[in-house]
Amino acid sequence: MKTSHRIVIAALIVCGGLVSAADKVLSRTASSNRVEYLAGGQARIPSAYRTWTFVTSGLDMSYREDAGTDEHEFTNVFVDPDSMRAFQSTGRWPDGTVIVKEDREGITRGSINKAGRFQSTKVFGVELHIKDSARFQGGWGFYVSSGVADPATLMPASASCYSCHTAHAAVDTTFVQFYPTLIDIANTKGTLSAQYVRESKQGN
Ligand code: HEC
To answer: Ligand 1, atom 36: nearest CA belongs to which residue?
Structure first.
């Protein structure tokens, strides 16, 4: 065999190795972005959600007038990047959308901090809101998990998650009115829900 042939073959072997290593990284990234459905209404939380598009951090939000608590909580919301891109161009969530809400402790004491609140390492819970018309009645499913415990559990269709989100959320059962970089997109694309538009006119 000519030396030049040997070099070409060696290069092909090295490249092949690189391609398959790159494939492995890609498929690992894809699987860490995906929800894995398990038996018994459970699903694995996509482990890469913290690298997704961040849309908001609610602080101590509550849906009752009398709510007051000593515990403080940030609600960090992340959207998978492909669905985020689709929303940016259409104002709608495509099938396959996964939105993660991470409920994280807010504390004051730590390091040099004297006032205000920052996020601690303690996660109270993780919730998923997933659009999959073939899988969920009504198109969307909610999953909850306590702490960072994995997997999360599907909430039944009778749960208040579905009724509150359906009645008050701005776009397709998602609370886009609290996601400051998304609400204008929905407004411009005309994808706000009719009941949200009615509710905002009533000043709610
Ligand atoms: C009384 C109304 C209400 C109920 C009940 C409710 N939510 Fe929500 N949910 C909200 C609001 C308001 C937000 C926006 C939070 C923010 O901005 O941080 C939200 C946001 C979310 C999000 C982020 C994605 C989205 O749809 O906007 C998830 C995930 C979520 N809720 C899960 C749940 C689950 C699971 C339940 C039931 C166990 C539930 N919610 C019950 C009002 C509600």
So the answer is: 161
**CA 47 to centroid of ligand 1, rounded, Å:** 20
The model's pTM? 0.88
Interior CA angle at 138 toward 197 and 151, to 5°?
A: 110
Residues with CB under 6 A from ligand 1: 56, 58, 61, 63, 75, 77, 99, 101, 127-129, 142, 144, 155, 159-161, 164-165, 174-175, 178
Rounded to an integer, what distance in angstroms lies between the CA atom of residue 33 and that of residue 51? 9
Q: How confident is the model over 32-70, as pLDDT tens digits?
A: 889 999 999 999 999 999 999 999 999 999 987 766 667
Largest Cα–Cα distance in the chain?
Answer: 84
